[in-house]
Amino acid sequence: MTDSDKYPVESDRRRFVKGVVGSAALSGVGITSAVTADSLTTPPGAGGGPTQYMGIERVGGPAPRGMPQIPIEIDDDGALRGVWPEVETETTATGQEIQVAETEIAGTTYSTTWYQYCGSQTSPAVEPDSDRDNYFRYSSASNYDWQGEFSGGDKVMVSHFDDYEQFGTGVGDAGLGKPAQATWRSQDLEPRDTLGVQIIRSTAIEEAAQDDEWLSETTAEGFIAYFNSCTHYCCVPGFQMHAGSAGYGAENLSYCNCHQSVYDPFTVLQQQFVALPRPSDTVGGQG
Ligand code: FES
């Protein structure tokens, strides 16, 4: 992709500000007209449909909305994993029984339909009752040099991020957070079915979580995670990953180098989209 394909960054906001996340999330101001248009023009289907979610903010470029957050928990050994809700059976308006995985967190309905876009809706990883390891595991190919000391598939551990308050990738300012590329619920799956995740440990998240019920429940020890699939055309953005991001004011944000979409991983908003149906829940699909 060349610079001639660039889209201007629409905002140079920096929201490393305590309290922004909470007020925005509670008021729902993150729902944009672009997102509404998306919901009106895409038909729902079994196992999908209009979905409200909590996600990082899209701040520039052609992407229509932010990327969905993944609630985190840390086990007794210090390993990070994503929360996967309990599975229940629901009956649709047409009488079809489908399985859903959702739960209430801090007054928000957390559903795994949040991740049903960009082809992931066909992945076994998002099947509600798929019995999978919920641990985050390092990607086998990462753009972050520091991950070279780990093998793809190794568990992401808190102790690997001890230097997060000073860490720098060489792109943007040091000290904003330590990022990693990981996978989720994807062991033994084909690359096309793998769920890619961005993890960041940052003091900005620690501070924001002090005043925000959602973040205090879904982040841990400064770690935030989100499904790292660009909502434009499904490329893989990166936080402080691409040197070229500086040309778009995105060197301290998450930048997608396919068409210059920019996301702020430190601002989480309530948003909405139409989740794509899972093939196994569609009439004629594979059970
Ligand atoms: S900006 Fe087009 S795929 Fe990310």
From TrEMBL:
Please list the coiled coil stretches: none
Which InterPro entries does its entry note? Answer: Rieske_2Fe-2S_sf, Rieske_Fe-S_prot, TAT_signal
Q: Where are the transmembrane segments?
A: none
Q: Which GO terms describe its molecular function?
A: 2 iron, 2 sulfur cluster binding
Record's signal peptide: none
Name of the featured protein: Rieske [2Fe-2S] domain-containing protein
